[in-house]
Amino acid sequence: MSVQTLRNYIAGAWVDSDSAPGLDVHNPSTGEVIARVPLSTSAEADRAIAAAAGAFGNWAATPVARRCEVLFRLTGLLRDNAEAIARTLVEEMGKSLPDARAEMKRCVENCQVACGMPIMQQGAKLTGVSSGIDGEVLRLPVGVFGMIAPFNFPAMVPFWFLPYAVAAGNTFVLKPSEQVPCTMAQITELIDASGFPAGVFNLVNGDQAVGEALLQSPHVAGVSMVGSTRVCRIVAETCAKTGKRFQAMGSAKNHLVVMPDAKIDQVVRNMITSCFGCAGQRCMAASAIVCVGQATYRQVCERFIAAARAVPVADPLDPAVADAEVVVGPVISAAARDRIAGLIADGVAEGATLALDGRGLTVAGREGGYFIGPTVLTDVTSGMKVHRTEIFGPVVVILQAGDLDEAIAIINAHEYGNGASIYTQNGHHARRFKLQIDCGMIGVNVGIPAPAAYLPFGGAKASLLADIKTQAEAAVRFFTQDRIVTERYWPED
Length: 493
Ligand code: NAD
Description:
By secondary structure, this protein is of the alpha/beta class.
């Protein structure tokens, strides 16, 4: 079977990349090559940026309602084609089909919210700032925006930014993750069919070279970055030097706190989904459980490990697991699997107990896949490498705290602060948790929650550099510039 080489989409046309031969894209469930992705050069990225810069003036001057009409068409096309795209997403990324469908739904929802731009982009006016003088705030488009995407949400993460950027009158250059380029290639066909003028949206496949071109170009006004904190720091430093606005959403280690009064049956089911969905490769995956009190710790360890052992590990497209509440699919690559296995070994070496070991597992008929089963380490203490590090796989560490204060201190001492949840029936404890936890997104009796499209999304500490969140109003703020006008007219003589 011949394997398709993906193309770039620049100035409203599909173009072959100058670079060869590119990288193989694998189905992580089987190891099969499903496409080839070009590693475009910085010159190709510059061509896309030039196209976006050329399209900016007319698009910014297009009435906002007309811009939203195009986005409405894209929203419909995304909804109509969601199932086919979800399958591509599963094939190249390995998450379950229900997770991929939910991801597509979130893309549609972000488009729907961005279609409210005629309301959201309104400025303000204060009549009579002084005698005969008015003050006005205009919210204007900014220019060309770049977006650098991670592998774990090939569709949803770009849609945290793209609909808001273009609805607000900006133009856009997207660099998908080179590990999962097929989903956005398919979505770009829909963007093309929606009727955006040439150059408003551009897609450039590649690796770090394309990312660097976006960061360095004087024609890019701002960059949205989602990925590891390591790369977020590069983005933050480079944008500071090149004078761009940026938002950079980084790595995570999300904690679940279980209080002694928690509803244990519901909690265990809930924690299993939060920890093992997407094989733990979500920035909002729970990966550390903190049990308050010895009795809670013992009960959670016993119940959680038994439930984790029962989670099926399979190719998510296997019909046998179609109805499973949670299925652990493959991780993204053989390298990721080996890195995760190494971190588990490090945990054992530093004194954690390996209560459930998912290493060395093969799935019948999928021997080439990159699988690692649910893994649980107990007797973990704050500061161990397995606690400090974002493992980004189906690996959970369980810690014990003497009381809620200690649990909060463990979480607040962590480098990352994306999300945290508490399980309790006690409103006073929940309230203290909400107010005292240094994380961006908090849950009470829910797994680590990814906020809906009409709420802001973003973490804290090293999980979010620059405190600029996304979705809805937060995205509108990033993709618009305020211009403040002070205005007076003298009376006619
Ligand atoms: P990654 O940082 O390895 O890569 C992300 C993107 O950056 C890729 O497109 C890559 O090509 C590009 N890149 C790499 N080096 C670059 C450089 N020097 N300059 C410019 N671009 C460069 O991340 P990943 O492995 O694809 O994704 C997983 C990570 O993303 C995890 O840490 C996860 O927590 C994080 N993530 C965070 C959020 C959030 O909202 N905080 C959401 C999703 C994923």
